[in-house]
Amino acid sequence: MYLADYIKEKLSLEEYSFSTEELRAAMHKEKEALTTDLSYLTKKGDIMPLRRGFYLIIPPRYSKQGKLPLQLFAENLFKYLNRPYYVGLYAAAKFHGASHQQIQRDYIITTKPTLLDIHKGTIDLRFFTTANWPEKNILIQKSDAGVFKISDPVLTAVDLIHYQNKLGGLNRIFSVLEELMEGITYYNLSELLSWYPHKSTLQRLGYFLDGSELDDQESLVGLLVKYFQSVYYYPILLSPSSNEKAGAVTNHWKVDVNIKLESDI
Asked: Helix, strand, or coil here: 228?
């Protein structure tokens, strides 16, 4: 079997990635010969080395963009890396219909140790790590290549709030947050509150939900109010700053609004 035939077979099965270990097992060729074949098809643009030992297959319908949609390879990539993951932040928001800002970068959240971001051609993939792996709020969605894991709307929202300073600041994510709020339900918020460890992020979420005009706003806010009645929490800044401390607060969430929010929806 030639490498080109192996790739055609993969595509016929809606598989868009492979590891060198898989390839050697299927091809039974010398390592040097496989390296030559891989180099040739990489130059042609038929495949792309994503990480050492892991390749993407770029079929004709994606050759113009020179990249694959994240959902076609995320699951296989993290099986190869033997790590948990979920598509998150702006990338997840886009799947949930909150794509007000057209972000070209993809985002994946995983566990430590930190993975190096990937910038190859038109692929721009950024990895975030968390020490508190979600017990709930991760959805399994179908794609043409099988399945992939993605944060649900409320986990996506709190991740955006939590990592706001690494994502360009609160005003950059504000419009996306407003759109995400429509996907938050009593059920997925209840699940989040059963395990989520960052009280300050939940305070900021409460502030945003309180100011929203959702149909079930009252029940969502009530759920958060009940949660905060059972814990001790301190005044915080809406937008964290190392040069500023929270001052007097009058809202239930103890959030000092230290930034003017501007939505462009």
From this structure: helix
Of 183, 172, 251, 259, the C-alpha closest to 211 is 251
9 and 139 Cβ atoms separated by less than 8 Å: no
Question: b vs e for 8-23, b when ≥16 Cβ sit within 10 Å of the residue's Cβ?
Answer: eebeeeebbbbbbebb
Collapsing DSSP to helix, strand or coil, 3 comes out as helix
* Residue located via tokens 């492979």: 18
> In angstroms, what CA-CA distances link 23 with 45, 137, 146?
18, 35, 20
Element (H, E) at 33: helix 31-44
Residue range 70-256, CATH number: 3.30.460
Beta bridge partners of 195: none
3-state secondary structure of 106: strand
Q: What is the pLDDT of residues 184-243, one digit of tens each?
A: 999 999 999 999 999 999 999 999 999 887 778 899 999 999 999 999 999 999 998 878
